[in-house]
C-alpha cells in the first residue's frame, strides 16, 4: 500500500479567524459611530428648524398686534404702544366698547433673559410665547 504525502488545506487557521473578526469589529464599530453621529445631527437640525419656525410665528403675531395698536373706533386716536428695552405694551380697543381692559386689548410682551424666552401677558398672567431666544430688544 502506497501512502501519498498529501496535505489538505480546506479550512482557516485560528489566527486567520481572529484577524478577520478583529477587522470586522473595526468596520462595524466605524459604521455604528457614523450612524450615531448622523442621528445626532438630524435631531439637532430638527430642533433648529422647529425653533426657527416658532420664532417666525411669534414675530408674525407680534407684528400683527403692533399693527392694530392704537385702534379705537369709538374715540380719538391714542398712543397704543408703550415700550422700553425689556417690555412692549400694546393697547387696542378691538371690540369698540371704549374699555381697554378686555381680553387681548392690553398685551404685554417681556423678555425673560434668565430662561431665554419671550412672555406674553393678555391679562391672565405671563405665558411663554417662544423659547430659546438668546437676546431680544424691542424697538419701535
Short description:
This protein has 140 residues and is an alpha+beta fold.
Question: What brief labels describe this structure?
Answer:
single chain; 140 residues; alpha+beta; five-stranded antiparallel beta sheet; 39% helix
Describe this structure in words.
39% of the residues lie in helices and 18% in strands. The chain starts with 13 loop residues before the first helix and ends in a 9-residue tail after the last strand. A five-stranded antiparallel β-sheet has the order 1-2-3-4-5, with helices on one face. Strand 3 (106-112) and strand 4 (117-121) form a beta hairpin. With 140 residues, the protein is an alpha+beta fold. The mean pLDDT is 84. The protein contains one helix and five strands; from the N terminus they run αβββββ.
Give the secondary structure arrangement, pairings included.
Layout lengths: L13 H54 L13 E3 L3 E5 L14 E7 L4 E5 L5 E5 L9
Antiparallel strand pairs: 1-2, 2-3, 3-4, 4-5
What portion of residues belong to β-strands?
A: 15-25%
Low-confidence regions: none
Task: State the shape.
Answer: rod-shaped
Describe the biggest sheet? Answer: 5 strands, antiparallel
Category from helices, strands and their pairing: alpha+beta
Q: What's the Cα radius of gyration?
A: 33 Å
If strands are numbered along the chain, what order do they take across the biggest sheet? 1-2-3-4-5
Helix content: 25-40%
Summed over residues and divided by their number, the pLDDT gives a mean of 84
Order of helices and strands: HEEEEE
